[in-house]
Design brief:
The chain has 487 residues and is of the alpha/beta class. The chain is built from 14 helices and 19 strands. The strands form 5 sheets. Strands 2-1-3-4-5-6 form a 6-stranded parallel β-sheet, sandwiched between helices. Strand 10, helix 9 and strand 11 form a beta-alpha-beta unit. Helix 2 crosses helix 6. Bound molecules: 5'-deoxyadenosine (5AD) and iron/sulfur cluster. 5'-deoxyadenosine binds next to strand 13.
Length: 487
């Protein structure tokens, strides 16, 4: 947990400490002094806009970034333009990169009107040398660039930028250490993500993540448990344990050797489940190849673990799965699902599917549809294959023509949506626990929450319910969400 006492103890009139996080606390305080003066110069409170693309990992990183900037003296704004604008980028598919260049173009003119505005970029796209080169050459108005491995160094980098007035670019190829005890600003007071591990060692042949997030590193279980206990004491009732592949948690740690205190993911779940005051546990993401029977047992035994499992399929064709380097076949995946359902008949399964991987034939695609029909996912994230340079799949022959991919994509979406609406319809009339998360964006008489299985429910209610778990009768299903009444 973030330790204010340690931060307060840091003396900024001396040299910067060598050790982290003290070193970063030092620069946070230094930046804070500067921000007070900057605010006087600007004549208005300093604002920040932290914009996040991509996955839960990025969302978590943005919580850390926001907390640091808030301590320094920036206030969050909903506006896309602010005194400090940061884009936390994603590069899993090409569209995400294009979006960033579009937004930078938009910011350029605003910065002309407000030269004291600062623009920063971080996240996965910044781990790609070509992209950083392009920013360096063609986007001189970007002030700060850092990567996924040195987020904790933001205070030091920011201080260096404001002192020099020059742009600072600092991207590391690999992580050096896991720095604990930095602040985090939760988007919701009652739920948050917890990193349990970083990086990915799987090298699925289409995926850029292992190149931009580096090798797998697991945090020490005691650090994780202590963080969660601290969060629960601070009002958190739901946690999402985060990792690119949580099932391989504990197999690799920061400095090479696995210490004795390390546990498997199943053991960690059991420990987290004993934390008093915690109500719901979720996790993301599981690779089917590493999902052990022990984990299935742990999930079914731990009452706080939600009735939801995200189990990326990617393709239903064993031939394509092999080319994807996924290490399972269609039959093994279906067998795994059968074992999961046997232990937990009520579990909701969701998945990720890629359409149009190089060499995918109509017959391969039919295999994917077949798995979708057999498993009956509650919902599925469907993606059109995007060629990422540097990955093995980018060099593969037989890239599938765009029109073919589009047509398959629509067929898949239709099948997924049809099944999803059938599954939600089955629950209408039943009563279930809903964690109320926020006011409904469209209708202020409604609140929105989630079932344990992650389905969204809207019902009449007010602000006082936010963060509470209430019993709701599900009265109507709308494809992939419900309307309900609190009972
Ligand atoms: N093209 C399309 N989808 C991809 N994903 C990862 N890489 C690519 C790519 N190159 C999808 C996978 C993964 C999800 C997070 O993004 O389905 O599970
Ligand atoms: Fe990418 Fe595969 Fe790692 Fe997931 S498991 S991040 S798809 S390489």
């Amino acid at each position: 947990m973030f330790d204010f006492a340690r931060l307060e103890a840091v003396n900024i009139n001396q040299e910067a400490p060598e050790e982290n996080p003290e070193r970063q606390y030092y620069f946070m305080k230094k930046c804070r002094e500067w921000a007070k003066e900057e605010e006087m110069r600007a004549g208005h409170p300093l604002t920040m806009s932290v914009q996040t693309l991509g996955c839960q990992m990025n969302a978590k990183d943005s919580e850390k970034i926001t907390a640091i900037l808030e301590y320094i003296g920036y206030r969050e704004t909903e506006e896309p333009v602010a005194d400090f604008v940061l884009y936390n980028t994603c590069t899993v598919r090409e569209n995400a990169n294009l979006k960033i260049y579009g937004r930078l173009g938009y910011l350029k003119n605003h910065k002309k009107a407000n030269p004291s505005m600062r623009i920063a970029l971080c996240g996965c796209m910044m781990q790609e040398e070509d992209e950083v080169e392009r920013i360096r050459k063609s986007y001189p108005f970007v002030d700060l660039v850092f990567g996924t491995h040195n987020i904790y160094k933001l205070p030091e980098l920011f201080y260096s930028q404001i002192q020099s007035g020059r742009r600072v670019i600092d991207v590391w190829k690999e992580a050096e250490e896991i720095v604990e005890d930095l602040p985090g600003k939760r988007k919701y007071p009652f739920k948050t993500g917890i990193n349990i591990m970083f990086g990915c060692n799987n090298f699925c042949s289409y995926c850029i993540v292992p190149y931009v997030r580096g090798r797998e590193r697991s945090r020490e279980p005691q650090d994780i448990l202590e963080e969660i206990r601290g969060l629960v004491a601070d009002g958190v009732t739901e946690v999402m344990l985060l990792g690119q592949n949580v099932n391989s948690y504990g197999k690799v740690v920061t400095k090479g050797q696995v210490p004795e205190s390390m546990m498997s993911f199943a053991e960690l779940l059991r420990e987290v489940n004993t934390i008093q005051g915690l109500k719901r546990i979720r996790f993301m993401t599981s690779h089917p190849k590493d999902l052990s029977q022990d984990l299935i047992d742990a999930m079914s035994e731990c009452d706080k673990v939600c009735t939801h499992l995200h189990l990326p399929l990617q393709s239903g064709s064993s031939a394509i799965l092999e080319k994807m380097n996924r290490h399972y076949t269609k039959e093994q995946y279906l067998d795994l699902v059968a074992r999961i359902r046997k232990k937990m008949p009520d579990i909701s399964l969701t998945t990720d599917i890629i359409v149009g991987f190089p060499g995918e034939t109509e017959a391969d695609f039919e295999e994917t549809l077949d798995v979708v029909r057999r498993v009956r996912y509650n919902s599925a994230y469907t993606f059109i294959y995007s060629k990422r340079s540097g990955t093995p799949a980018a060099a593969m022959e037989n890239q599938v023509p765009a029109e073919v991919v589009k047509e398959r994509f629509h067929r898949l979406l239709e099948t997924v949506q049809q099944i999803s609406s059938e599954i939600t319809a089955e629950k209408v009339g039943s009563i279930a626990d809903v964690m109320i998360e926020e006011m409904n964006e469209q209708d202020s008489s409604l609140v929105t929450g989630r079932l344990s299985n992650n389905d969204v429910v809207h019902c009449k209610g007010d602000k006082s319910l936010i963060g509470k778990i209430v019993s709701v009768k599900l009265t109507e299903s709308k494809g992939f969400y419900y309307f309900g009444e609190i009972v």
